[in-house]
Amino acid sequence: MASLLYRLGRACFRRRGRVVAVWLILLAALGGAAVAFKGPTSGEFRMPGTESQRAMDALKKEFPAAGGATGTIVVAAPANTKLTEAQVAPIVRQAKAVPGVVGAADPFRARSVSPDGRYALIQVQFAGQIADITGAQRTAYKDIAHGAHGGLRVETGGDVAKDGGGGEATEGIGVVVAAVVLLITFASLVAAGMTLLNALIGVAVGMAGLYSLTSVVELNDASPVLALMLGLAVGIDYSLFITSRYRQYRLDGMEPDEAAGRAIGTAGSAVVFAGATVVIALAGLSVVGIPFLAAMGLAAAATVAVAVLVALTLLPAVLAFAGARVLPRRHRAGRVGVHEKEKLGYRWGRVVTRLRLPILLVGVVALGALALPVTHMRLALPDAGTAAKDSAQRKAYDLTSEGFGKGYNGRLVAVVSGHDATATRAAAQQAATLLNGVHGVRAVAPAQYNGAKTTALLAVIPTTGPSDAATEDTVHAIRDKVSAVRGADVALTGTTAVGIDISEKLAHALPIYLLLVVGLSVLLLMLVFRSILVPIKAAVGFLLTVGATFGITTAVFQQGHLAGLVGVATPGPLISFLPIILIGILFGLAMDYEVFIVSKMREDFVHGDKPRQATINGLGENARVVTAAAIIMISVFAGFMITPDPIIKSIGFALAVGVFIDAFVVRMTLVPAVMAVLGRAAWWLPRWLDRVLPDLDIEGEKLRREPAVPQEAPYTYSVR
I need a labelling partner for 595 at 20 to 30 A (CA). Which of 214, 255, 568, 698 fits? Predict the structure, then answer.
């Protein structure tokens, strides 16, 4: 691999104009396609094969009028007064006048007035799906709450009240921090700017390609943001690693094109491996069997793949244009002092290897303690109760809970499907009787029938909120109870039921996916490092990272510890797909740091250094670059925490925490401590396995043995 990438890097360096032109043309073409074909993303979470999704599909077929987006307007009279039809009628008319609305139910006729007469719910039905609702429609709908209503309080809730977007411009924070870190790391404005520009071009190409497909591929709202978040982080990191290696080769006296070839052949090999692990882990989300999760994984994997290609081809071309200006000014001026301080990484490496046993003990115990909240972790889809307190959704949620109880925010729907009208009616009556006897059910509305009278729906109001643990018990109790209905099929659905089904399916898939990822890491690292114990150590370190990250995220977002510092309005269950997404992403990022640090350890050990010195060298040579890369990644991910969207906020927080733990605690502290304890045993591999495993040559050993490729033509560059 190293030889192939060496030739690729050298060719791109020498043909820099053509390479840059190809990428710019590709960016322009994909950008134009994105503008022309960009389609809407969806906030819907589908779960094929579950009872709730089957019932939801039946509703859309038998009750097409109910298939569009919905909203709920909550009206409240002043204290100690009651609403009148005359007061509410103008609000109903105003709701009907919103563009795209096909119906708004009078609460007095729909019997959606609270027992004390002070509160009322107006159900609003739109013709289009939530993805089709325009900004103008959302604004017109939410403006209803801001009108003069004669002293009444009016709040607009439901899907339509949710603010669009949620991640715009947050990536700017990460880019600014990345620029500062790169400038400090390289001590060269040209090197920092070139590295950042290269990564941004890769992200732009990846995102343009992704948006150009949204008209034919359905993506969840979180998919583009996750792809942007990850593509930006790894794009900067990959460019940073290769540029750092190129500069080192230049300082060692290599010719520019030879240094570029060697950098792509060595650091580029590690980038290919690290990128491949991220892509495989993200693409592996497809095996879970959840379409929206598979789409999220594939979208993010695509941007990572583009980041790898850009780093391997565009970066050496940009390095050629930069010339000697990529080096620090003092090196270009020949002012390299002989008394330069020893790198901090070497000093830290000596401390860790000397105190290896105490450090291992403290580190493992500390990470284990941070993981303890995981035992209480709960998963669910987000609801309006976790939205920002000043948002329209949250205000409507709180007012509904105040007037009707939390259960009205998590209404369930029982869909009764029979062979004929008589069987359906009998089954609906039997189901209503059974439902009224279920503990946790507050009320059951009268049955509504489709035109053929073969399908009925029963609105079920639980006593608890949509994300309460008791509601999950109520859903299971309802399903057990209605299984006794004869003559028709009864299925429970609704947003709350769909969320519970998704959470349970993901919880069942999580151990399998974790085993797949850990098994993959052991196999891939065995190929890279030709060792048994190093891959096992890496996998255990990954598990420590994941456990501690889950624990901290649970403590903040679910239990509410320090929640105000990260802008969590109301603590609640974690997003149901957060753990599996986090595992997929952190796995790849953890392998980035593992490869860059441990590959240097192996390289020096193979060339004759003692195990302890090789460990110190591996940390000493790479600590600065890994630190810079980790800070950049943490900044990019943390920048997404300012969005009000609880999904993006929790993903950004968890990834930032996970990268911090994995880079600074696990890879740069526990890993060298373990390597120092293992000594030569770390590199043990049975001879039969050594013969079977292919030699990937990540360290570029073959490049050391092979003479440099002769110059094709005299090469000149500017030293300005």
Answer: 255
